[in-house]
């Protein structure tokens, strides 16, 4: 019995792709100190945010001013605490951003200062799903936070700029990120791997694209994007509740993921009885849903992002889920944009449409200098957020991390 089990096991090992097979059959083969340091850029709600209220802060109701002059406190940190302390209204007010047309950038409300704690470490998001499972798997391989594994949390209210755009928040973030990479790389005498998931995939891609070419070539071993929200965009069949809507809509991240005309062109994406909206009519759609204030920042900041396709020119792997029902069109038949729409589905990871993924693959394959160092992996039935938590998908992601460490 035991021996037939062992036979079965060796047979299974043989069926595995070779790098994983080597890893599982002799872990000594990939010693951890041979690994390149890895930097994780987590998904959209994983990074904490701290705030400090200065004298300039004018609370809408007195109790929102309770933290005024009392130093830094966790603003986006623990939602049950917000509820427990009746801080939801204050939270929304202090989280909200203001678009400033004079500088074409977003800033905080007057008197609110913010910062992302624990930059450089994964400890700020190590207990949050889905990052948690990925971090545990990396630790299983032998990665250690602060030595071979690092975190690059970010302020997810803001969207990363494409080359040529400015963003005060991301200028600082990119600078910190470069310094952290230089430090880790110099210490280990190795280039680093940067891995981003979902919105963090877009942040990771834009980070690399915003660094000087010689810097990238010197420090970046590989860029791994797992289910990244790419510039080609998608539609989500969820409507934000009225109570938190103005806060969400004030974020730059709320306007950057709309479908791009470059891919979806004149196809109707939002369907109503009266009229349809295609990717190049998103401004009309904003007006129809009562979000006119989003039009200018959309035109000046989001639309240019959807036209920026230069490849990062570093070795890159894109890992996406396929084989899931993924919204392509939304139907608000009676033009009630507050009701949940019906969706028309096509293929993808449940959130990001395969059409966008294939357009990105094609674009990367077309660009000389990227085409020979681009790999696209599709994992059947892997879904957007569970691609780094479901064993079958996570194993494939881990296998790719092992593989890129073995490329010389
Ligand atoms: C969040 O806050 C609640 C209530 O104060 C507390 O019980 C819980 O332990 C906190 N969770 C974390 C992760 O800090
Ligand atoms: C909207 O698009 C749908 C699906 O393509 C089409 O059947 C319908 O005629 C269009 N409606 C209008 C008002 O153009």
UniProtKB/TrEMBL annotation:
GO molecular function: O-acyltransferase activity
Keyword Signal listed: yes
Assigned keywords, A-Z: Signal
The keyword Repressor is assigned to this record: no
Pfam families according to UniProt: LCAT
GO BP annotation list: lipid metabolic process
Leader peptide range in chain numbering: 1-22
PANTHER family in the cross-refs: LECITHIN-CHOLESTEROL ACYLTRANSFERASE-RELATED (PTHR11440)
Protein known as: Lecithin-cholesterol acyltransferase-like 1
Native organism: Digitaria exilis
């Amino acid at each position: 019995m035991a021996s037939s089990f062992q036979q079965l096991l060796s047979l299974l090992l043989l069926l595995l792709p070779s790098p994983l097979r080597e890893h599982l059959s002799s872990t000594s083969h990939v010693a951890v100190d041979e690994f390149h340091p890895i930097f994780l850029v987590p998904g959209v709600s994983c990074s904490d945010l701290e705030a400090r209220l200065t004298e300039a802060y004018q609370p809408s109701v007195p109790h929102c001013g309770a933290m005024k002059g009392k130093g830094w406190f966790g603003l986006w940190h623990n939602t049950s605490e917000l509820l427990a302390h009746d801080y939801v209204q204050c939270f929304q007010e202090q989280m909200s951003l203001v678009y400033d047309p004079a500088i074409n950038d977003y800033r905080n409300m007057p008197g609110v200062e913010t910062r992302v704690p624990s930059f450089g470490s994964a400890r700020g998001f190590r207990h949050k799903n889905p990052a948690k499972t990925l971090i545990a798997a990396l630790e299983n391989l032998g990665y250690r936070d602060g030595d071979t594994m690092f975190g690059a949390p970010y302020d997810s209210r803001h969207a990363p700029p494409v080359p040529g755009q400015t963003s005060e928040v991301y200028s600082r973030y990119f600078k910190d990120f470069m310094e952290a990479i230089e430090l880790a790389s110099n210490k280990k005498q190795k280039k680093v791997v940067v891995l981003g998931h979902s919105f963090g995939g877009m942040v990771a891609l834009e980070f690399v694209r915003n660094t000087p070419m010689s810097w990238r070539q010197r420090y970046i071993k590989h860029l791994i994007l797992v289910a990244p929200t790419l510039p080609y965009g998608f539609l989500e069949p969820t409507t934000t509740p009225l109570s938190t809507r103005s806060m969400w809509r004030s974020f730059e991240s709320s306007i950057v993921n709309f479908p791009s005309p470059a891919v979806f062109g004149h196809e109707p994406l939002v369907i109503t009885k009266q009229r349809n909206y295609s990717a190049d009519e998103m401004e009309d759609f904003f007006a129809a849903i009562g979000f006119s204030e989003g039009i200018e920042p959309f035109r000046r900041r989001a639309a240019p992002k959807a036209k920026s396709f230069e490849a990062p020119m570093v070795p890159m792997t894109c890992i996406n889920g396929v084989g899931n029902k993924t919204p392509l069109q939304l139907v608000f038949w009676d033009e009630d944009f507050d009701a949940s729409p019906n969706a028309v589905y096509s293929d993808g990871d449940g959130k990001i449409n395969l059409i966008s993924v294939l357009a990105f693959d094609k674009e990367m394959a077309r660009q000389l200098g990227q085409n020979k160092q681009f790999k696209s992996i599709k994992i059947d039935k892997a879904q957007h957020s569970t691609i780094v938590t479901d064993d079958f998908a996570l194993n494939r992601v881990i296998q790719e991390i092992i593989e890129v460490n073995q490329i010389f």
